[in-house]
Each structure stands twice: as C-alpha cells, then as structure tokens.
Amino acid sequence: MATVGVLGPGGVGGLIAARLGAAGHEVTVVASEGTAAAITAHGLTFHGPGTAPSVTYPTAQPWLSAPLDVLFIAVKATDLLPALQRIPAAMVGGATVVPFLNGVDHMPLLRAYYPTASVVAASIAVEATRHRPGVIEQLSTMADVVVAGGTAAGVETAELLRTPGLTVTTQPGEDTVLWRKLAFLAPLALLTTVANAPIGPARTDRATSLRALVDEAAAAAATRSVPVDADAVAARLVALPGGWQSSMLKDFRSGRPLELDAIAGPIIRALGAAKAAATVEVVQAILAAGR
Q1: Helix axes 277-289, 260-271, angle to 10 degrees
Q2: How far is CA 256 from CA 82, 196, 259, 262, in A?
Q3: CB-CB contact of 192 with 206 (8 Å)
Q4: pLDDT in tens, 109-128
Q5: In angstroms, what CA-CA distances link 259 with 91, 137, 204, 210?
Q6: Is residue 112 classed as helix, strand or coil in its secondary structure?
Q7: Per-residue CA distances from 275 to 99, 152, 233, 263 (Å)
Q8: What are the tens digits of pLDDT across the range 64-77?
Q9: Phi-psi category of residue 225: left, alpha or beta, with phi > 0 → left and psi -120 to 50 → alpha
Q10: pLDDT-derived band of residue 5, with 50, 70 and 90 as boundaries?
Q11: Band (141; pLDDT cuts 50, 70, 90)
Q12: Is 40 exposed, middle or buried (0-12, 13-18, 19+ CB in 10 A)?
C-alpha cells in the first residue's frame, strides 16, 4: 500500500483522501490549521452517491512532516502558491506529485518547486463539494480520472487511483490530458458563471455563447497539437444534468476568488484576444458582475 499525501481536502481532495484511505492506503491530509484540527478530532466523512456515509481517519496536519510516495495537490489555482508552503520540497524529495488543478500553467511551476519529484499531469471529472471541514459529498455518479501515462510514475499513479474503484484512463502526453479537460471545463465554468445559473438554464439562455466558447477552447488546444472534437464537447455539455453547477459558479455565488486566469487565460493567450472574442467577452462580464 502507498503512503499518500493530499494537499487541500476540499471536494476533490477530500474525495481522493477518503476513497484511498478506505482502500487501505496510509493517507495524510495537509490543510489549514482549522481544517486539520477538525479532521483530527472527527475524521473525514465521505458521502458517495447512493451509499451510506463512511468515516476514515487520515493523519491531518497543517504542514507535511514525513516523507510520502505520492502527493495529490487539490487546491484552487488561486491558492496554489501559499498552499505549497505547507509542503516543503525537501520533504517531497523524489515522490510523485499529481496535481488535480484547473488550467495548464501549473506544471512548470510545480516542476520548479519540486525539482527532484516526478510531476504527473492528471484531471478528474466529478461534482463534489465540501459541506464543512472534514465532510465531503460526491454529488455526481461520475468520477472519471485521466492520467498522463507516458512515464513509469504515470502508470503507477493510474494503478493507485484504480484501487478505490475510480474510473481511470491514460493518455500518453500531458498536453492532451490538460487541454482536453480545459476544452470542456472552460465553456462549462464560464457559461454557468456569467449566467449565474446551473448548466441547464445557462445553455438554454446562452446557446450561441456556449458554442462559441467550445469552438475557441478547441482552437486553443489545437495550438498545442491537441485535437479536440468541438461537436463532441458541445454534445457532452448538452447532456449534463441541468442542475450541474461548476465550481466557479459556486465560488462566484460565495464571493470567493475565481479561477478566471487558470481557466480562461490559457485560451486567450493561445489565440490572442481577437480570436478568443467570446471568451474575452464572458470574462469581462463576469468581472463586471463581481464588482
């Protein structure tokens, strides 16, 4: 069994920590002092779809103090730099680092911060939420993980994530993993947030914007030689349950910082503002609404 660390036990990080812990792995979660104290006192409660709540008891602390085999990073992109201070590079050493972050720009940063680690690109498609510190609910039946499996560390990461029953596939290159996720996530996050509504009413009221956002995300992926089927992405967004809310929409409604640069920034930078006009327009509208 692996020794696993999870930085950021929110919706995604808490899900990973709970499911790997239930599968018998030794798990340490690293979080703020208050969250670490809550998990230490009460454990990590996880509600899966259609199952009774389960409780695991990972080690919880505000900084990493022991070596590990694999570190999952599941904080918001807006919180990444301060969160990394909780995980010293010397403690990580040659471990595998797996970021579940939105966007594509975090990979070189993590490689610079952890120069002797193996940083493996991964993405997860799931709707999960943290109700309060240490209480996590997986809202969607889907929990699909894609891992860049072109290295030994990538293959081992995929096998680790299969042990708790997650659906895991691999892609040979990290650009493919990250840009294909972004091509789906960016239209979903931007459209629901600018509409201030779940995907059902958002896609009905703003069908033209939805298609334009998808096309621009696919075009941006193409600049990295990543083919994206825009029709398939649009169809997938149309097929989502109408009540599905993006994490950006939840952050917008709660007044928390938005991952606008992590999600929209790569598209605008790849295409230029003129060719990413729909994305730019939506970002501007979100910023204006948040004032």
Answers
A1: 150
A2: 16, 14, 10, 15
A3: no
A4: 999 999 999 999 999 988 89
A5: 28, 22, 24, 19
A6: helix
A7: 29, 38, 19, 16
A8: 999 999 999 999 99
A9: left
A10: very high
A11: confident
A12: middle
Mean pLDDT of the chain: 95
**Residues composing the chain:** 291
Q: Is the pLDDT of residue 236 over 90?
A: yes
DSSP 237-280: HHHS-TT---HHHHHHHHTPPP-HHHHHHHHHHHH-TTTTHHHH
Residue 11 in contact with residue 132, Cβ under 8 Å? no
Distances (CA, A) of 95 to 73, 87, 122: 13, 12, 16
Q: Which residue has the tokens 């812990």?
A: 21
Token representation of residue 213: 């956002």
